[in-house]
């Protein structure tokens, strides 16, 4: 479906939308003023005025075309105002994860040379004030929220958002023509944003994305997925991440959809029922949690309830491909008895989930499809703006990431000799191409301009032929791209076998009693797993089997019954794995892998080296006798 306006740059997207929506009382955004308060909607006319007011302030403060402005904030209305305000005067958006510590904030601000720095809450302001003296390029520090500690405002030289907006309103009349002129001068080749990769090792790199990088991706998305004026999305993935920025923000606006902000990632379940979105952009973690909640409820029910659920899943899977009147009737009954309750938990209006950022276990994709809630899985990286592939709606193939998007070419390069053994353009479907496994490459208008101030690192990932090397391993299967794992995650066991842990970990995470899992075994005789249990599910299992459970989680982990349970579950998974891939040993870990304890990146990817160092003794204990 085409976008509702025509545009070639991010500033043009805002300008054309502001004209189209003028005077129509159309909602642009909505937020919750308080946890127990209803969503407050913001119309396009107010949004337009706020953007121009802040643009006037930023221009008057000295921000020129090509200058960087930074945002350290959770997803919220002010983020969107700041983004468009800076970009319509030619500024380059530098966004930071709200979870970053002060020293990483300092690094990114200095590396990017940002001149105006916007922060959200008192927590984020505290970080900025803490390192302000070291951020030499920053001329203005602006806070969205007034901190409880008023001294921070004076001592840190902090300006308040509402004040600068008002100053901008006063300045706008004299700067209106200059703003309009600058907006029109921004070209497709001009930089739009620096998105700093979270990085599993070392300092983050600033990915330079042009207006054309982003806009080409937005337009390609609209050729694959229908987004219209009647749609609404719930925004909760970080806007500083390329996936949410393009798919959950620009692409939504380009279709005329409304953006409702979740209060936080912890309130998504509640906000889904309040916002009642039609399209939801998420990472697999949300679907894994929903799936496990459903299974827990079924497990806690009677044998009749469990039998009914299994019947419903069977009917749902049949209905995906069957046109039988009997199957259709059975599906209606299954919806009424089982699946409508799940749909109600999503707000009752979701017509499409879009998953990205990590692999979606095929079992979970099929479960949601059987329930009548389609998940379309996509694939890409920050460096590809970000989307490269999307599963076609109505022809999804779970376990793959779908077809190459229009305008983009994806190749497979054999790791052993560097030869490109297959390539497929997004404009050449339908295709039945299948290939051997290799590194996934990408060419197209979505490929980044490079890493800021890092020529060597840029040349390491973009070769002389223009291919961007993703570092992911995969193959084509009947024209669908299947991801195997990350090249750098490859484990070489003691026998020299190459093993990709990702698919094995995805299988372990479908165990009802497992919350997180990491597979280890570099230079060892066999694979092993570190597993963070789902203690709520474990206690439910113990109760259902009349086994008394101790009060502490660490004591639950040590129970023989629990260890035997995981052993049985892993043996079931091992039946589907090659001999050298089988998980022969495991250890249970009480503390979850989180951003806060340094094991996860802000995009929820495991920092394997950090984990292996932190749990070195535990891993060593697995292989102490070198016996499976």
| Major sheet: arrangement of strands | 7-6-5-3-4-8-9-20
Count helical runs: 21
CATH homology superfamily name of the largest domain: ANL, N-terminal domain
Radius of gyration over C-alpha positions, nearest whole angstrom = 25 Å
Largest sheet: 8 strands, mixed
Q: Can you name the CATH architecture of the largest domain?
A: 3-Layer(aba) Sandwich
The CATH class designation of the largest domain is Alpha Beta
The total strand number stands at 27
* Rounded mean pLDDT score: 93
Which of globular, elongated, flat, extended, rod-shaped describes the shape? globular
CATH topology of the largest domain: Rossmann fold
| Helix amount | 40-55%
Structural class: alpha/beta
How much of the polypeptide forms β-strand, as a percent range?
15-25%
Give the N-terminus to C-terminus distance in angstroms: 55 Å
Catalogue the unreliable spans: none
Number of domains: 3
Describe this structure in words.
GO terms for molecular function: ATP binding; long-chain fatty acid-CoA ligase activity. This is Long-chain acyl-CoA synthetase. Residues 24-452 form the AMP-dependent synthetase/ligase domain. By secondary structure, this protein is an alpha/beta fold. It is built from 21 helices and 27 strands. An 8-stranded mixed β-sheet has the order 7-6-5-3-4-8-9-20, sandwiched between helices. A hairpin with a 6-residue loop joins strand 17 (409-413) and strand 18.
């Amino acid at each position: 479906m085409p976008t509702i306006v025509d545009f070639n740059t991010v500033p043009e997207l805002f300008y054309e939308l502001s004209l189209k929506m003028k005077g129509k009382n159309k909602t642009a955004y909505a937020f919750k003023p308080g946890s127990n308060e209803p969503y407050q909607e913001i119309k396009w006319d107010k949004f337009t005025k706020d953007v121009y007011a802040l643009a006037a302030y930023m221009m008057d403060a000295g921000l020129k075309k090509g200058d960087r402005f930074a945002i350290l904030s959770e997803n919220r209305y002010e983020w969107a105002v700041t983004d468009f305000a800076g970009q319509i005067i030619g500024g380059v958006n530098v966004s930071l994860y709200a979870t970053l510590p002060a020293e990483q904030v300092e690094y990114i601000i200095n590396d990017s040379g940002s001149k105006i720095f916007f922060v959200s809450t008192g927590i984020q302001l505290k970080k900025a004030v803490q390192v302000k003296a070291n951020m030499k390029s920053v001329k203005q520090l602006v806070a969205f929220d007034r901190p409880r500690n008023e001294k921070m405002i004076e001592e840190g030289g902090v300006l308040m958002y509402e004040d600068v907006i008002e100053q901008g309103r006063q300045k706008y009349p004299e700067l209106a023509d200059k703003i309009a002129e600058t907006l029109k001068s921004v070209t497709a080749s001009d930089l739009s944003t620096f998105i700093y990769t979270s990085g599993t090792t070392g300092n983050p790199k600033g990915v330079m994305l042009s207006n054309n990088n982003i806009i080409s991706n937005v337009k390609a998305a609209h050729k694959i997925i229908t987004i219209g004026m009647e749609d609404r999305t719930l925004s909760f993935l970080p806007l500083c991440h390329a996936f949410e920025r393009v798919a959950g923000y620009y692409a939504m606006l380009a279709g005329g959809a409304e953006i409702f902000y979740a209060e936080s990632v912890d309130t998504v379940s509640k906000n889904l029922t309040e916002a009642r979105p039609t399209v939801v952009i998420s990472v697999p973690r949300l679907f894994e949690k929903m799936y496990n909640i459903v299974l827990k409820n079924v497990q806690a029910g009677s044998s009749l309830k469990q039998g009914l659920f299994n019947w419903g899943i069977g009917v749902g899977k049949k209905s995906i491909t069957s046109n039988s009147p009997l199957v259709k009737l059975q599906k209606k009954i299954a919806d009424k008895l089982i699946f409508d309750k799940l749909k109600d938990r999503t707000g009752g209006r979701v017509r499409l989930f879009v998953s990205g950022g990590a692999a979606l276990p095929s079992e979970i994709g099929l479960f949601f499809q059987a329930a009548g809630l389609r998940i379309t899985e996509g694939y890409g990286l920050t460096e590809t703006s970000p989307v490269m592939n999307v599963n076609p709606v109505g022809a999804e193939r779970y376990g793959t990431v779908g077809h190459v998007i229009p305008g983009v070419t994806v190749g497979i390069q054999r790791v052993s000799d560097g030869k490109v053994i297959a390539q497929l353009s997004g404009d050449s479907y339908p295709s039945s191409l299948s290939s051997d496994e290799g590194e996934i490459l990408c060419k197209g208008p979505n490929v980044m301009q490079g890493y800021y101030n890092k020529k060597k690192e840029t040349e390491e990932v973009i070769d002389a032929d223009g291919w961007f090397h993703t570092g992911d391993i995969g193959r084509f299967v009947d024209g669908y791209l299947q991801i195997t794992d990350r090249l750098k995650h490859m484990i070489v066991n003691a026998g020299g076998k190459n093993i990709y842990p990702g698919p094995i970990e995805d299988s372990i995470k479908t165990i009802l009693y497992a919350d997180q899992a990491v597979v280890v075994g570099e230079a060892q005789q066999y694979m092993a797993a570190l597993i963070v249990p789902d203690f709520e599910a474990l206690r439910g299992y113990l109760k259902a089997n009349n086994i008394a459970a101790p009060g502490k989680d660490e004591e639950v982990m040590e129970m023989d019954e629990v260890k035997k349970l995981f052993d049985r579950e892993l043996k079931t998974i091992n039946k589907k794995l090659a001999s050298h891939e089988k998980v022969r040993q495991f250890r249970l870990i009480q503390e979850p892998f989180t951003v806060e304890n340094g094991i996860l990146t802000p995009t929820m990817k495991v920092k394997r080296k950090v984990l292996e160092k932190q749990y070195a003794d535990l891993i060593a204990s697995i292989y102490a006798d070198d016996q499976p």
